[in-house]
Design goal:
The chain has 265 residues and is mainly alpha-helical. Helices cover 49% and strands 6% of the residues. It has a three-stranded mixed beta sheet, covered by helices on one side. Helix 2 crosses helix 6, helix 3 packs parallel to helix 9 and helix 5 crosses helix 6. The chain starts with 13 loop residues before the first helix and ends with a helix. 27% of the residues are buried.
Length: 265
C-alpha cells in the first residue's frame, strides 16, 4: 500500500509567508529601531566638527571685566577693542554666568520651551512643536517651533531671523539649527546648558541713534547695567523682565527718543 507524505517544513504556507501585514510590521520595527539608533548616533557624529565651533565661540566671546580701584563694576572691554581675542567680525562680549537664577529659568522655559527637559525636548528638538509650526505656515499663521537649544545655536551663529530673509536662506538656517541643537544638548549638562543660554543671548539693546551702544549679551551684564546688581540678587520682578527680554530685548532709550521709535517698541 502506497503512503503519501506531506513535507510541511520545506513547503510552508505561501499565504502566511507573503503576508503584507507581517512584512509591514517587520519594516516598522526595523524603522523604529533605526530611528532610535540615529537619535543617539547623529549628535555624536555631528559633534566631531560642530562642537569645536561652539566651544570656540564660548571661549572667544568671554568678556574682560573692568573695575575701579574700589572693585566696583565699570563695564567690559568691547570685542573690537579687546587685544586678548580675535574671532573674525564677531564683536559681542559676554560675562560667563556662574549660576542661573532659578526663577529666571523657570519663567524663560514657561515662555519659550516648556518641554526642554522632557522626552520631547531631550535632543534639543520638539517634534510636536515643529509639526505645529509647519502646519501653521501652510495655513498662513505664524507659530514658532524652535526650542531653546535651536535658539542658542542661532544666537551663537549670529543669525537673527529677518523679514527680509529669503525662503532658501530660512530653510538653510533651520536645517543647521536642527543639526546643531542636538549636539548642544548632548555635549552640555543641564546646568551648563542653562549657563550658556544665560550668557549668549542679547537681553538689552540700545535704541537707534541713541548713542547707547549695541546689544548687551548675557544675564550678568544685563543685570548689572539695568538694575545695578549681580544675577543672584535680582528680584522676582527683575528676573521676569529679563526672561521676557529673551525674545524682545529691553530697549535702552533716552527721554527724548522720537515717538515713532517708542511706538515701534
Amino acid at each position: 500500500m502506497d503512503t503519501l507524505t506531506l513535507d510541511t517544513e520545506s513547503n510552508p504556507n505561501p499565504a502566511e509567508e507573503a503576508s503584507p501585514a507581517k512584512r509591514l510590521r517587520r519594516w516598522w520595527a526595523w524603522g523604529l529601531a533605526g530611528g532610535v539608533l540615529l537619535m543617539f548616533a547623529l549628535p555624536r557624529l555631528f559633534a566631531l566638527w560642530v562642537w569645536p565651533y561652539y566651544q570656540g565661540v564660548h571661549e572667544h566671546t568671554s568678556a574682560t571685566l573692568v573695575r575701579d580701584a574700589r572693585g566696583d563694576f565699570l563695564g567690559v572691554i568691547p570685542g573690537h577693542m579687546d587685544p586678548t581675542v580675535n574671532f573674525g567680525a564677531r564683536d559681542y562680549k559676554a560675562l560667563a554666568l556662574e549660576q542661573v537664577p532659578p526663577l529666571w529659568w523657570q519663567t524663560l522655559t514657561a515662555l519659550e520651551d516648556r518641554h526642554w527637559n522632557s522626552w520631547r525636548g531631550a535632543y534639543g528638538i520638539d517634534p510636536a512643536a515643529m509639526v505645529r509650526a509647519l502646519w501653521a505656515s501652510f495655513t498662513g499663521r505664524r507659530q514658532g517651533g524652535s526650542t531653546l537649544a535651536m535658539m542658542l545655536a542661532r544666537q551663537m551663529r549670529l543669525w537673527a531671523p529677518s523679514g527680509r530673509e529669503s525662503g532658501w536662506a530660512r530653510l538653510e538656517r533651520k536645517l543647521i539649527e536642527l543639526r546643531d541643537a542636538p549636539v548642544l544638548r548632548a555635549r552640555l549638562s543641564d546646568e551648563d546648558f542653562q549657563r550658556w543660554v544665560g550668557t549668549h543671548v542679547p537681553l538689552v539693546s540700545g535704541s537707534p541713534n541713541s548713542g547707547l551702544g549695541g546689544d548687551i549679551y548675557g544675564l550678568e551684564l544685563a543685570a548689572r547695567i539695568l538694575f545695578g546688581v549681580v544675577p543672584a540678587d535680582l528680584s522676582p520682578a527683575q528676573q521676569a523682565i529679563l526672561a521676557a527680554a529673551f525674545k524682545r530685548p529691553v530697549l535702552l532709550a533716552p527721554p527724548n527718543l522720537p515717538r515713532s521709535v517708542r511706538k515701534a517698541r
